[in-house]
């Protein structure tokens, strides 16, 4: 079970909290992109794709209660004011140049 854990918590940097899912990717140099599909969080299902310059969160099934996703400092959410995981849609964070 260590291999899935290093991908989820280490390389993708996913930290689940009571009201927020923090994502801070630390991809290996040889791996330009990683994806996890059907990640369950607060009753919702999500696909998260991380690359060096972007993070894409796809809400497959919305969370059952208000929940948010955030990226570390130096990243900006592009098309929405907040990344609400209890609303269907797709959200993209981009690394600030």
Give a written overview of the molecule.
The strands form 2 sheets. This protein has a 5-stranded antiparallel sheet, covered by helices on one side. Strands 1-2-6 form a 3-stranded mixed sheet. It has one helix at 2-11, and strands spanning 14-16, 20-23, 33-41, 44-51, 54-61, 68-70, 75-77, 89-95. By secondary structure, it is mostly beta strands. 10% of the residues lie in helices and 46% in strands.
Report on the biggest sheet. Answer: 5 strands, antiparallel
Give the strand tally: 8
Which strand order does the major sheet show?
3-4-5-8-7
Which percent range describes the beta-strand content?
Answer: over 45%
* Average of pLDDT: 93
Radius of gyration: 13 Å
Uncertain segments are: none
Structural class: mainly beta
